[in-house]
UniProtKB/TrEMBL annotation:
Keyword rRNA processing appears in the UniProt entry: no
GO molecular function: rRNA binding; structural constituent of ribosome
Lineage: Bacteria, Pseudomonadati, Planctomycetota, Planctomycetia, Planctomycetales
Protein name as catalogued: Small ribosomal subunit protein uS4
One Pfam family it belongs to: S4
Species per Swiss-Prot/TrEMBL record: Alienimonas californiensis
InterPro entries for this protein: Ribosomal_uS4 (IPR022801), Ribosomal_uS4_bac-type (IPR005709), Ribosomal_uS4_N (IPR001912), S4_RNA-bd (IPR002942), S4_RNA-bd_sf (IPR036986)
Keywords: Ribonucleoprotein, Ribosomal protein, RNA-binding, rRNA-binding
A GO CC annotation given for this chain: small ribosomal subunit
Gene label: rpsD
């Protein structure tokens, strides 16, 4: 799956969760939270279907392609500990998610676009890859350009509801410091990781 450009509210309704956070998708979901399609055609979802929905939540929420998700899954499986929890922690460590969870952007697509356009630096080095996995001690800053600093300072701090505890945010920079390795308790997406692991292990 490439980058999804279709109706975001439709995905939210299909998955029963607001994986897309922009205002239009949230309002549409609040108006019509039921799945798309005629009610008469809706059938009981099988276990396979439920597991697929949980997997799709992760893909859309973190903006992952199928190959990216399976690459992270293979890495999580080789790590010690619970595979499902490891998978979610790897997703949380992605640079685009860190920028979003700091409150510097309002959505993950917005964070990914800014990174791809070279708006951010990690430890003083300009980056353009949203999938970079951060480590404790990493510092994420906006490039030293007045227009970029004004843009992100205007957004920073406007939404702190999802600010992660493993991040320290300095709005004056703006500057993000990764203070610790995230754990499963820091994951902001409610998902049945057990069913996702079973699905990806098929």
């Amino acid at each position: 799956m490439g980058r999804y450009t279709g109706p975001k509210a439709r995905i939210n309704r299909r998955l029963g969760f607001q994986v897309y956070e922009d205002a239009g998708a949230r309002k549409a979901f609040d108006r019509r939270p039921n799945p798309p399609g005629p009610p008469a055609r809706r059938r009981k979802v099988s276990n396979y279907g439920l597991a697929l929905i949980e997997k799709q939540k992760i893909k859309y929420y973190y903006g992952l392609r199928e190959k990216q998700l399976r690459t992270l899954f293979d890495k999580a499986r080789r790590m010690p500990g619970n595979t499902g929890e490891n998978l979610m922690v790897l997703c949380e460590r992605r640079l685009d998610n860190v920028v979003r969870r700091s409150g510097m952007t309002l959505t993950r697509p917005q964070a990914r676009q800014g990174i791809a356009h070279r708006h951010f630096q990690v430890n003083g080095r300009t980056v353009k890859t949203p999938s970079i996995l951060v480590r404790p001690g990493d510092i994420v800053t906006v490039r030293n350009r007045p227009n970029l600093k004004r843009m992100y300072e205007g957004v920073a701090g406007s939404d702190v509801t999802q600010r992660a505890e493993f991040l320290s945010f300095d709005q004056s920079g703006p500057r993000i410091t990764v203070t610790a390795m995230p754990d499963f308790g820091d994951v902001s997406l409610p998902v049945d990781v057990g069913s996702v692991v079973a699905f990806l292990s098929r």
